[in-house]
Amino acid sequence: MTPVRRAVNLAAFLTQTAQRLPSADALVHGDVRWTWRELDSRVGALAAELTRRGVRAGDCVLLHSANSVELVQTMFAVWRIGAVLAPTNSRLTPDEVVVIARACRPVLMVCHASQPDHATAVACDQVLWIDGTGPDAVSSLPAGAVPDCPVMNGAPAWYFFTSGTSGRPKCAILTHDQMGFVVTNHLCDLMPGTTAEDASLVLAPLSHGAGVHLLTQVVAGARSVLTTGPGLDGAEVWDLVERERVTNMFTVPTILKKIAEHPDAATRDHSSLRHVIYAGAPMFHADQEHARSVLGEVLVQYYGLGEVTGNITVLPPREHGRARPEGMEFGTCGRVRTGMQLAIRDTEGHELGPGETGEICVAGPAVCAGYLDNDEADAAAFRDGWFHTGDLGMTDENGYLYITGRASDMYISGGSNIHPRDIEEKLVAHPDVTEVAVLGMPHPVWGEVGVAVWVGRADEDTLRAWLEPRMARYKVPRHFVQWPELPKSGYGKIVKRTIRERLLAEGWTP
């Protein structure tokens, strides 16, 4: 009989750091500066209140708030009592949060006081408020001390919602032991040498990848600096980098592009930066090169899905600009992460060799325990011992991965498979194109035809003339649509599903 083994509760990361560095800064948010001792004490107070309200180990707590110090407090308080955290992006509508709540069935909701409609819609029996007043406000709780609840291997820590909320949402179950590996791996591969002398700037919502990144700072004792504005403010970003001597940050390509193009990037002191990490979507080569020219060799790219908690490949600063194989229009997303394994497999499950395109599959300790109450999703994603990402790619002779596209993004026009990323890379290389998305739309004769939706000053004739000598004619999009901006998710990703729906709603026809 296999013995049950105890895992390390994620709350222990804070407990240990608060013991080691009690007076050092843990969180900075505007004029607010919490030390590790203060954060630990506030976590204890909230943990005691959650326990008093009947929240038990294994129960789910729904967290809906923009980034704040109280959000971090809530994360660790939930873990401290052995409950499961289900954070949502603060930009979601009340109806979207309701769909998530139905999937994870929370016993209590912690909600920002500026969004009461979300709490009303969820109709949870108990609600605590961030930035509120009165006895139900997180900030008004009396001091309390609660030990870290024992948890075993396989115990869920985080319900990580990985897709949109149209239809049934997919919720990856992240466990305490899995996340312990992920944090170790992040420190090993993404920001080696991080210590209590470092500072991290929080730019993305802590409800997803940025929250995982924050865990690594807690383990190392590095302080996390939160922006104060409701949106991305490049001036504030570079002011904080200079003033707080920020050494690392987690971004997505759209955020990195914006801050690298901001005028202050060229005038403020950012010499403290060592690791500017970006993930979540491929970054166009032209945008990548511009960021390198402005910031220096500090970019760290990683590739991974929520189900693998980002742990598939890494491209460290010294490997940006690596030569790509002949005929490949864009660069690598790096080599496989420490302790992980990937394979390129065809539709029959056969493993493919270098230069052959197939589905990217991954195995290792960073893979989630499965989906919450979703056997259909489990069966589709977990096959033959591998997690199937749904992304298409190839490796070179040295094992470096190149993502050619999302399987669901590929379209078939006149019998030819077309992967949008190659076209998008070429379009965004035009100096008068700032953003672009290429997708397949239905056509009565060709099955699907390519549609390029772009932002910028260039006109359609210019873009056609730009593409035609650079690719086979059948790959050139049949239609071009210019928009003032492209729709993005709450995490800064361009959402092709929304683009397709908007095109159809506006009466697009072939």
UniProtKB/TrEMBL annotation:
Q: Where would one find the signal peptide in this protein?
A: none
PROSITE patterns of this UniProt entry? AMP_BINDING (PS00455)
What the entry lists under Gene3D superfamilies is as follows: 3.30.300.30, N-terminal domain of ligase-like (3.40.50.12780)
Domain of life according to the entry = Bacteria
A Pfam entry, by short name: AMP-binding
* Boundaries of every AMP-binding enzyme C-terminal domain copy: 423-493
**Where does the AMP-dependent synthetase/ligase domain start and stop, copy by copy?**
15-372
Could you tell me which SUPFAM superfamilies the record lists for this protein?
Acetyl-CoA synthetase-like
* PANTHER family, A to Z: LONG-CHAIN-FATTY-ACID--COA LIGASE, NONRIBOSOMAL PEPTIDE SYNTHASE PES1 (EUROFUNG)-RELATED
Q: Would you tell me the protein name for this molecule?
A: AMP-binding protein
**Species:** Paractinoplanes bogorensis
